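A favour, since you know our structure tokens better than I do. Go ahead and set the record down below.
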Amino acid sequence: MSIIHVNQIANKIEQLFQSKVDVSDLNPSDQEYRTKVLTRCLAAYAVYCIGGANEVEAANSVIDGANDNGIDAIYYSPANKRMILVQSKWSKKGVGEPESGDMRKFKDGVFDLLGLDFSRFNDKTRNMQALIETALTAYDTKFDIVLIHTGNQLISTHSQRVMNDLVAELNDAGDGVSEDVVTFHQLNQAKVHASLAGGMEGEPIDLEIGLSQWGKVEEPHTAFFGMVSGDEVFNWYKSKGKRLFSKNIRQMLGSTDVNDEISTTIEKTPEKFWYFNNGVTLVADSIKKSMVGGNGRDIGSFRAANISIVNGAQTVSTVGGFDESELSKLEKVKIPIKLISLENAGDDFGANVTKTNNRQNRIENRDFVSLDEQQLRLRTELAIEGIEYNIVRSESFKSSVKSFDLSEATIALACASNQVSLAVQAKREIGKFYENLSKAPYKSIFNPNVTGVYVSNVVKSLRVVEQFLNNKIDSLTKKSGREYGFLVHGNRMIALLVFSDLNLSKVANDYEFDLNSLDIEEAFEKIVETLSNQIDEHYPDKILGTLFKNATICKDLYRRCI
């Protein structure tokens, strides 16, 4: 059966990616040519499924070739803040699993990439350097390390231990805390085949959908909206499964925390589900209302032909994952739903509905910060000083001499706090500051004792340190390797040490604060040299990308440098 599955996988991924992946470095007369092409198509498929990329983006993510350093695809989504690192192995016979040596090479490649050592990678990777650095230095980036192969076995215990050790080290935040930043996924032949089968449309799905409190939109395209009960959605999923999402093949992985929140709401407060959930969007070739319910809007029955759920897959799959014994809870669940008819809507309308529904920005914890009274107070104080303080998330905002935003203020305050844990948190995951506005770490830096003048002064000081960092990076002979990684990854720790050395937390609260009165450059040069020497002496083998996100190590370095 393995050979049949392998051939089906080959045909499908060739249809998706063969014309799109770069094969210019391959020799068509090579006996292994097709295997090498399929390896690249398989790597692209991993990105397509897990990274939420389209076919072209997934194909462009493939870096497989000479000197790929064990990594076959690299993809970063700025919108989702997820980076995907893939190793792909094609087995013609569909038996066995990748060798342990391949796993060690993959692990070493991940270490080198996170350490910004681009000298060990090929030109395809180096051409992506700017994007990779953005991913590695961006706030709250999550990493998916993916092994995809057509073997019929899972990797050996030894190989699994290699990957477990890698994930454990990268997730180690110090002080005995492990954060879910990096996840390892293994997609073997069975999982790849199942995902392709689940994503293929197959026979059209028609549904009879009961809506309560329903309404209708007639122009410019016909649509209905209302509430559907949880037990009805449960039955959809039990009978149709992942085929419900046929127009959105990327449904292998969901956001665990979101699924957990959905489950918790159903378990504890099912009657409040409608208030807490964004709901489901469903498209259909046609939607017809039956006579059930007459002309009233309290209840209606609708027949939807050739449907696909284009948004809300997590909601549907989570509801569908409940046990039948819990149907009494699901009966209390009311799920918001939109039914959009594609009848007479034009060829591109359905695709556009799918795309835009999946690209809408989700509400983040930081969006609620704009309602905090401390932020409103700081914005007012700074406005009086002629400084714009942007506390609302906006892509159009541009910082300037007279303006900065919440993120920049958070980083500056964390680095000026003299608390290693806060500076490390600003480096590791700035979103943690905004999870709970009533306690630390948020209250540690935003509280009634923090003035607008102080925030402005520490932001100015941080900008000076960052300029010195940029100058030093520009002076390097190559933008790769450990020295380069030290300056890029160590920026928050360096700022923390410089500010502590200058006693910034004391002097920056003065209304007459003069930035020029501080010899920041001298402190900067001293700290960079001292910190670098301490790392070389005590942590020479640590990955710099994770070292500066480890609170225990950084506390030790802080003690040695101050």
The CA atoms of residues 233 and 316 lie 6 Å apart. The first strand starts at residue 73 and ends at 77. The radius of gyration is 27 Å.
